[in-house]
Design goal:
The complex is a heterodimer. By secondary structure, chain A is an alpha/beta fold. Chain A has 2 domains: 326 residues, 3-Layer(aba) Sandwich (Rossmann fold); 99 residues, GMP Synthetase, Chain A, domain 3 (2-Layer Sandwich). Helices cover 31% and strands 24% of the residues of chain A. In chain A, the strands form 5 sheets. A 9-stranded mixed sheet of chain A has the order 4-3-5-6-7-8-9-14-13, sandwiched between helices. Chain A has a 4-stranded mixed sheet with strand order 19-18-17-20. Chain A has a 3-stranded antiparallel sheet with strand order 10-11-12. In chain A, helix 8 packs parallel to helix 9, helix 9 packs across helix 10 and helix 10 packs across helix 11. Chain A is globular, with a radius of gyration of 22 Å. The N and C termini of chain B lie close together (5 Å). In chain B, strand 2 and strand 3 form a beta hairpin. Chain B folds into 2 domains: 67 residues, VC0802-like, CATH 3.30.2130; 65 residues, VC0802-like (2-Layer Sandwich), CATH 3.30.2130. Chain B is an alpha+beta fold. Chain B is elongated. In chain B, strands 2-3-1-4-6-5 form a 6-stranded antiparallel sheet. Classes of the chains: A alpha/beta, B alpha+beta. Chains A and B meet through helix 11 and strand 19 of A and strand 1, strand 3 and strand 4 of B.
Amino acid sequence: MIWNENIECSGREQMRQLQSERLLETVKRVYSNVSSYRKKMQETELVPEDIRSIDDLPLLPFTDKSDLRDHYPFGMFTVPMSEIVRLHASSGTTGKPVVVGYTRRDLNMWAEVVTRALCMAGAHKNDIVQVAYGYGLFTGGLGLHYGTENLGATVIPISGGNTKKQIQLMQDFGSTVISCTPSYALHLAEAFNDLGIDPAEMKLRIGLFGAEPWSENMRKEIEEKLKIKAIDIYGLSEIVGPGVSCECEAQNGMHVNEDHFIPEIIDPETLQPLQAGELGELVFTTLTKEGIPLIRYRTRDLTRLNYAKCACGRTLVRMDKCLGRSDDMLIIRGVNVFPSQIESILLEMSETEPHYLLVVDREGTLDTLHVMVEVQEQFFSDEIKQLQALRTKITDAMQSTLGLSVHVKLVEPKTIERTSGKAKRVIDNRKM
Amino acid sequence: MIKKQVSVFLENKIGRLNEVTHILGKNGINISAFSIADTSDFGILRIIVPDPEKALKVLKENNFSAKTTDVVFMNSPNKPGALAKALQVLNSEEVSIEYMYAFSMNEETAVIVIKPSDLSLCMEKLKKHQDAFISDGEHYII
């Protein structure tokens, strides 16, 4: 089912017109209400009247996470706090948290885009949706929660963690949809295995997974192990939270809710806009947000845009699965390495679980990359030569893909830290 | 005879072997024999215990990668030259072996544990020599 057919299947010209109208309003609003935007625009002698349509987007200055941190907590809000009905914040692992505020209308818009996402995934009002994202300052839990209610489906607000209870409620309540991180989905699959329960006995048919990058191979593994359709949902709290974009049942790119968020792709080095189809950094401009509208916000996620009409009938532009992050990219001996590349290599080898950790060190002047890989129980052999062959196979595959020498270390199962939130995949010990 | 050996994947780091033996001890599992094959990064601990299935269950519950493997037990006299005799037979029959180790049961008897490449072929060839083993009045039990 298409939730909002008018918008989701609208013609390109019609969409551009809507976007242009909304962009003009947004630019006017931030110019008059947010001093940092006004200052940035004045630096390039830009006034709101210079922006006539979305073709003028490249004239506007970028916004970065550091802008949000510099104006912590509420400095970028365009409405008085009396209008803000909810706050969310991203984890502050690299400094102060980033705080976002929502007006009543923002929350309604957010519920609308999440509802669209659920429908894209194939959910409907008779579904029972187990929201296993964390509830709290993180946008995952509450975002999915209100989208599910808006759809009219049943929400189980179980939040993250407590795996045994997740499985028990899934059995008892007959959950048909689950939403969590993809690494937690694999963790659930392991837990089913440990408990000796066949996931095929569950009523579960759809999973909406997001909040961390995952590969096509990881999708295959989740789909096979949990016997569901695994759908990629994308979002970031700065823009709104989950629901910025989502895959449809065609599983061929995530439809961006572009009537609310215009995507652009830029070269992360030169900051110049790239053509549709080119790989680069994703940048969003919000079009309807009242609490904290963002102009050309740099997501650091690497992807491509595809404007072709989708098999599902939607015309909303699609973005590819994120290929990594422009700031997570490791440069090792001059070679660009994305953790997602390592993951997809490991998933191609049925012998290993996709639980890995990259450790980058500097020995003298030379950077080294160690990859810790957990050995799956089914493959474990009592013969050294079999395990050495496995290690050689992984090493060779990584070296040929990355063009870099890699030291692979096989480690015991479940020794690499698991979390129900985002998985830690990289330890960079280099002192730059 | 064919018996089950338990093997465990171990990272080459301090305390792992201690951990395995501690877990088995705590669960009342006696280790009759063990051997370790190691590389610089990891090792495989192979153990002989009275109840391999119980040991396997306990190890898995403690998140170890473990499995049971069929191996050949050959009882031999516990005296000089006995192992040589057994190996000579294996050699003459060109039985290919992945690994082997041995332990003493008591003053009279030792056990040779063999992991052949082909278990049934190995048994067949050893049985063929059963008479030769016993002809000296010595106690080889295959």
